[in-house]
Amino acid sequence: MAKIAKRTAAAQKAFEGKNLISVEEAVALIKGAASAKFDETLEIAMNLGVDPRHADQMVRGVVALPNGTGKTVRVAVFARAAKADEAKAAGADIVGAEDLMETILAGKIEFDRCIATPDMMPLVGRLGKVLGPRNLMPNPKVGTVTMDVKTAVEAAKGGEVQFKVEKAGVIHAGIGKVSFSDEKLAQNVRAFVEAVSKAKPSGAKGAYLKKVSLSSTMGPGVALDLASATAN
Known about the structure:
Layout: H1 6-15, H2 23-33, E1 41-48, E2 60-64, E3 75-78, H3 81-90, E4 94-96, H4 98-105, E5 113-116, H5 121-124, H6 128-131, H7 149-157, E6 160-164, E7 170-177, H8 182-198, E8 209-216, E9 221-223, H9 226-229
Parallel strand pairs: 3-4, 3-5
Antiparallel strand pairs: 1-7, 1-8, 2-6, 8-9
Helix pairs in contact: 2-8, 3-7
């Protein structure tokens, strides 16, 4: 039987008997147990009452967290001429067209968000099999296919988080760093839950929000009281 590290054992003991607690209690518990040598991410997992195999039960969207994610987001933009210059001025890390497509096809994907102007989508469409599985494909529903390149780049750099339900009906995202204050993390949690709640699809039947849990990158998870998670 594998030996449990002292740090892990201490964290597990601190979490014993903790279930369906308030956002504030969960944040304090997770921050107190986070002892990795790096600034861990606060991660949220939401179990939804949907079956994403049906188009009318797909859940996806974007939320601008009030306090950002604490993560440096690398942004790639497909654009030409004036829009390419606009993207560079807004802080995009990579800007291109056919050259960027070839770089991606060669397996070099050095970005976390991909944005494109509408006229570039026939080109970007060729990358569906590469970008799609990585959830990097530009999509007008989340504001990444747009002529307003400046706003899209600034939003991505400023802590905007995209979400998309997985096959099992789960949404998972990083929503801050444990070094953030308790108040800022609690605000981010509720902002994310609210955004997912508002994205409820027309085909969802019965209970939509089934379970919401928080954890740090290296720590145990704890389930939240839904009333606390959805409180404004």
